[in-house]
Structures
1.
Amino acid sequence: MTSLSLRASLREVSVPPQMEIVYAHPAALADVPMHYCPGCSHGAIHRMIAEVVDELAIRERTLCVAPVGCAVFAYKYFNFDSCEAAHGRAPAMATGLKRILPDRIIFTYQGDGDLASIGANEILHAALRGEPIGVIFVNNAVYGMTGGQMAPTTPVGMKTTSSPLGRDPLTQGRPIHLTEMLATISGVAYAVRRSMHSVAEMRKTKKAIRLAFQAQLQGLGLSLVEILAACPTNWRLTPVEALDFIRDRMASEYPVGDFKVDERLRNWSGEC
Amino acid sequence: MPQGAVLIRSDRCKGCGLCIQACPQQVLAFAETFNARGYRPVQLDERERSCTGCGVCAIVCPDVVFTVYRQPLRQPLRRAERR
């Protein structure tokens, strides 16, 4: 059976009319194929953001600042306005956008190479200024786009293309815990770490993204959601093994949890 | 058990297999054939158990391949009706 006839046969699968739709493609996510590798967490995180934007009904006033890295084409995949920042400078660009357009919901979508390395200065000072923007920080411990080199977030002992014997803390330093660092700053309203290694954790990740957007709707300050994500291609693992790697290796270095939740956010369940 | 169904856009599937591992009913499997992009897409295999429409596959799928349907749960009878 060719792929064409397979597709035709699947389309013929009839759904009984008494069934209701439980899950469908979110309207805020463009109906185009994504370029990510099989098993990459970026696609699922894009989908969660789109679902949250749909649930809060803020699609017409949401702006995404796309990073440099694997998610560089994020602007292609969202059905709301996006712009592209220079490497690591997404928080600076989001600052400018938020000051010109204060009624918009502005978030940056950044990887660990983008945010924790070249953009560490920008995120630190955006946090010190308490800019009311959202930051989605996707941590997969490597530079994915360029071939899996060691990033500032690579755990000690992990083998990458630029640390073939495993990261040695004496010569290559120790991993950075950016979310814990930023949680100490008073301008930050929400700083949490979530993971993508199981269905339960993915549900919690979506809730955290929702709270980050609500923090911004309330104008509380900077909100940061760090997400431990899988990169099966550069970890040289299958997609299912990559989830075990997150659970066993990444989550021990980067514990999942809430590091700062503003009291006003904790008690708020209101409308936007 | 509620009855469910999934529609699979096999041209979008990249064959990562995360849904096969996550499915509580184990009703998803790789197809024998390849799609236009060269991956073996998932398909519904309901020979032993049937889909309940829980939507776990849609949560783990990175490529938004699934549309999930479920039969509405029957409302429990009120005490007066039961008599």
Note: The longest strand of chain B covers residues 4-8.
2.
Amino acid sequence: MGGPIASLHPLSRADGSASYKCPATGSNVLGSVNAPIELPGRRDALKPEDATIEVFVKPGTAPGGVGERHIEGILRGALGRIILGREKGYPRRGVVITLAVVGCDNIARGSSYLPILPALLHTSILALLSASVPLSMTFSATVLAVDSSGEIVCEPSSTDAAAAASLHVLAFTSQGHLLLNESEGRFDFDTWERVYERALAICHGTSALGSDGDVAMSENVDAQPLEGFVRDTVEDHIHREYAWKIDAA
Amino acid sequence: MASSATAPTAPPALSLPPSQFARLQPHAYLLAHLSPPASSQQPSIRANGRAPSQFRITSANTGSLTHTNGSAVVRLGDTTAVCGIKAEILHTEDIASWSVSHASSPSAPNKRRKLTNPTEKPGEDRQDGSSQAEDDDDNSYIEDFSLLVPNLSLSTGCAPGFIPGAPPSAHAQSLSHQILSLLHSSRLVRSEDLQIWYQRPNLGPEELERHNEDEQMDVDSAQDGSGGVASEVREIKAFWVLYIDIMIISLAGNPFDVAWTAVLAALRDTKLPRAWWDADNEAVVCSDLVSEARKLSLRGLPVSSSFGVFEADAASGWRAVIVPDAEEERKIAESDRKGIQRRWVLADPDGYEEGLAQERVCLVVDKVQQNGKIVIVKLEKNGGFAVDRKQMKELVETSVRRWQDINQILKEC
């Protein structure tokens, strides 16, 4: 099973866009960002010194429901802390993030959105980077399932997720903070700590934070750390965009 | 002017009353309370007079609404929620996928455990650790057929921002969804409590005997030793659907905790009438005897506690360069213990504090009755960098203390 596949700026009319596909969980998300834009509506009700962040999630085959409203709130909370809404040109304007779930197993009423939450988070951070929205840092996220025997499954498929005793989504900033944690199911604190360790290893590799580049990997993390994945995607994109310049040099 | 002439003794003071200061400079106001100058000898206390890990006074009252199957009013400080639970019957004939997927699974009745004694208190039920497989089977009914339908309404004029009669706001929708997914993931309600069975008469002698005994419809004959014969002819004819309506009638912060506590209290109060399938009328018939109605036997008592993080540095949210990385963060935490505190985790934030706390933590914990083990049912943290592993451990401990309090309150109500 390969790692995630992402591309920057697939949409030409949006300020920034990204598509993200995770083969393990089967989620495929297309996201666009428009920022800064003038928002209609009453402005005096909102914080005047900050940008307004709007997130819209559209499931693939159904109209959005209460589950989408909930996940939009989660995304807004996490992204609101990363986006520097007080930089020049942003206060009183809007950052509109639209995420379309292109491919994933149907999410029924009241069931968990957690399996595709990392894909939504990654798509939005990549789209924000592609729109050059000022950010204080980036982040990476992962989903882990713990089955009834206490075994941790990384990036579970939908059947694994349904059978799991608990599901956890953790997002770590590029500086190593725990930005977001969403856990549900029955578990104890020790399990959560194991999940935390594992998720940190998946997002940042197992080396101590702050060491640059070469990351020593443990045997249970078989892929590149996800933080590096976000970085590489942007790097590749810039490399392609500036190919003419690099060639000329 | 006359007024200046009459009061020459006291010069006009350039000070604001506390309430105005609180409105103009909310951040500085709360910070001044939490970190009083060392000379003043005052303890660090929140603007509302509580210690950082102190919850507001909670009270609960059940059974106030007579037309519901179960109801509760829960008050947490100035936040109040009313929850009413109404049970309606869903015939299996009306479920499109029923005949295909579930109608005749012969193994299902055998797997069922004997039903709880109706006199048992719902809070003291046994734990389900041993019967994992059975529970999975059990729970799929509730999720597949949406047997629990919670709905939360904020459009009651509960706070100035919410206009009565408006469509449900994104916040209300999100809360409804959280309650539904917590009901599903905590598996609080047992699906067997919601099943209405039909016992096809098999003309055996023990069948008649069973009716003489003062037993419930659901009590499987597996108990009295004839399970093999009888279980073949039992089938589910209908389900109870529980409509759980929550109205927040006053909102002063922390709506999720109060809504969830109201749901818990109302579910503990819920009584379903004895119902059975009447083959002659081809309808579900309910007994109107109150003595035959039975309470739901809930699995455990998951209690929710919410926290907000207040940062001393008002700009920490948006100053790009200042945000320290996780390593530095730990060093700062060290220095915290020695001297100046930089952030406070406030339990049960009220409306004023919620506006100042970007980072939220919500924990739902349960304590297993037998071995006293702590089970976390939901752990959410969003919107900030302050709460990491160590702080989380402390919050879990606070939540466990809260579990004890709520358990006590719900027992007494």
Note: The first helix of chain B runs from residue 2 to 6.
